[in-house]
Amino acid sequence: MIKMRTRGARRAISLGLAGLGLAFLATGLPSQLTSAPSAVAATPRNGQCYWIPLGEGTQVLNYDIPAANSACHTSVDWAVNVFFGNGGTVNSVKSALNYWYSDISSNDMFMPGTDRNVSFTDKDNGRKRLACPVPGDQSRHYRVYADSDDYLYTTAHGPFVVATTHWDANECPPIGKRFYGSEEVEKHIASVLESSGYWAVRDWASFSNNEPYRVEGNHTWESNGMVTYISMTK
Amino acid sequence: MTASFTRRTRLASAALMSTLSISSVAVGCGNTRTDTVSQTQKAACPTASTPETDRLVAQIPAKTTLSPAGRPARLNFNLPADAAQGPATWYVLRLSADLSMNPSQPNQTSAGIIGATNGRVSHQVELERRPEGIRLFWNGLLGGPHHEATTKPKATIKFDNYLQTTGVKPGKNTLELRIDQRGGNLVRQVTVRPGSGIYQASHPPEQLGLEAPQTVEATNGEELAVPYTLTRASNRAADTPTRINVTAQGLQIHGPSSHTLDCIGERTSRRFTLTGDPGNYIVRVSAAGDYNQATAIINVHIAVPASPSNKPRLIAAALLLLAAVGVARSGNIRRRLKKPQSQP
Questions:
Q1: What ipTM goes with this model?
Q2: Do B324 and A229 touch (CB under 8 A)?
Q3: Do residues A71 and A61 lie in contact, with contact meaning Cβ atoms separated by under 8 Å?
Q4: Integer Cα distance of B88 and A119 in angstroms
Q5: d(CA A44, CA A31)
Q6: Cβ distance B334 to B327 under 8 Å?
Q7: What's the pTM value of the predicted model, to 2 decimals?
Q8: Taking CA B235 as the corner, what is the angle to CA B233 and CA B236, rounded to the nearest 5 degrees?
Q9: Which of A35, B99, B108, B251 could form a disulfide with B276 if both were Cys (CB 3.0 to 4.6 A apart)?
Q10: Are A153 and B161 an interchain contact pair (Cβ–Cβ within 8 Å)?
Q11: How does pLDDT run along chain B (344 residues), one tens digit per residue?
């Protein structure tokens, strides 16, 4: 009789403690889960993204985003890291880089902004050396953005476009697919255009998108937050 | 080479930095009407000044011809010792030209027709061969983006734009017009029409500007103020009524969703008031009237009211669960130990 009472009491205590613990978890975990970064969409450091004002009612976001209506606090692709000014247009950039980046990517990304205070959202699939690298292979990739797929204009910068860069690896089929190396591709683009007679200014201006090394799913961040300026007039 | 590189760096950096500061001083005529209710009493607005006529500084000779194989066309012109691109005087290139093209080029062939002063590009006419014909595009601060698609081999360019800030200097300046063929042969010839040249204007590029914060943060349950400031180039156009609308999907707008300003003056500031549930939202404020349409996009973040950190709660939960497991296991072990052993 005593034994039974003791067993019952223990069972009741353990059930009570477990219930209490689960109740704590139930109230504590959801907020932890919602603030955790998604495994699919990349997130900007500290959930911060900004409009970069460039004069005369023209501004761009400091990251490109995976859908036209993505909230950039929670879903971005890459930090803007190249500014093609003084004659930078989507076609002039793609033409100048065609030798190194000839293939067309299949994935569009988006860039919202304003042109003379009028909103736009541009999209670009970008250019790569290989449209879809097989497992074990990789390819540099850049995307350029402006209003209406052509260019933006301000008196400070002339015709210009902005760009994001990165490496793609193991995409077709996607076995171990991963994306990384935005700083390296930024340097590569500046270097090959300089060799073609254009001039570049590295670490020209801060776009407030510094991303220390961070692995987020298949997306590896590393950006110093400074944009490379390339004049597209020789 | 080093000196030139340094100068370019400084100019490029100064150019960006000069645009990154946004003033928030509000001075305006201050007459507001709200929502859609019309108001019969017309507020007194300052008399509108008449836009001034631009003055010709340097004319590009009519019939100046650019051909793909030829050299760029160059025109030297002098500006006063105090010449600068703003704030008192502004310089504009007005380019009118006949364009002859080669439609037989393969798809995606592109070319550019470029106008630059002192190496700083102000005019960029973009051409691209597409399945539907040749697409023409240019974008400037006077006319905005211009799109045109044609299957004909001829077209007309009429493109006026402000020069770059660093494309204007005292003394001798050089205007250059050239064709950038980009490996194809899309442009056959460009012939300049009469009236093309560098002009001096007194009005700045922007007519109507709309300034608003990039991000507004609030806590759930609080009213959220979205302030904005309209700025107007005073001698560009008459100071006419302007309507400002706010759209905020997922948020509740308190008060009117539009303001009507009888006049703007140089600057006028107002605000919209919103509330909403925790989350991230995009609010769009746009102004329309006899000016360019001005739009501001504001990221809104509404946070859950501050609560104690979850960490102690999680630690307590884990400890309680461990204690529960411990109690249950100790009970089992004791039962096993106390179980009577069967005697052989």
A1: 0.80
A2: no
A3: no
A4: 29
A5: 19
A6: no
A7: 0.68
A8: 70
A9: B251
A10: yes
A11: 223 322 333 333 333 433 332 222 223 354 555 433 223 234 556 654 444 568 999 999 999 999 988 899 999 999 999 999 988 889 999 999 999 999 999 999 999 999 999 999 999 999 999 999 999 999 988 777 889 999 999 999 999 999 999 999 999 999 999 999 998 999 999 999 999 999 998 777 767 778 888 889 988 888 899 999 988 765 445 677 888 999 988 999 999 999 999 888 888 999 999 999 999 998 989 887 655 667 788 889 999 887 655 566 667 667 877 877 776 677 666 666 565 544 43
| Joined tokens for residue B257 | 């969703």
> Residue B327 is nearest to which of A17, A71, A112, comparing CB atoms?
A17
Identify the residue among B2, B126, B206, B325 best suited for mutation to test binding to A, counting A beta carbons within 10 A and taking the highest. B126
What is the DSSP track for B54-87? PEEEEEPPTT-EE-TTSPPEEEEEEE-TT--SSS
Q: Report helix, strand or coil for A187.
A: helix
Q: How many residues does chain A have?
A: 234
Among chain A residues, the shortest Cα distance to B180 is held by A92
> Cβ of B68: how many Cβ atoms within 10 Å?
17
Q: CA B64, CA B73: separation in Å to the nearest integer?
A: 8
Is B314–A32 a contact, with Cβ atoms under 8 angstroms apart?
yes
With CA atoms as reference, the chain A residue closest to B301 would be A73
Nearest to B208 by CA among B151, B263, B273: B263
Minimal Cβ distance to A116: which of B8, B144, B310: B144
Return the number of other C-beta atoms located less than 10 Å from residue B38's C-beta: 7
Strand B258-261 relative to strand B242-247: parallel, antiparallel, unpaired? antiparallel
The span from the first CA to the last CA of chain A, in angstroms, equals 97
CA distance to partner chain A, nearest, from residue B145 (Å): 8
Residues of B in contact with A229 (CB under 8 A): 12
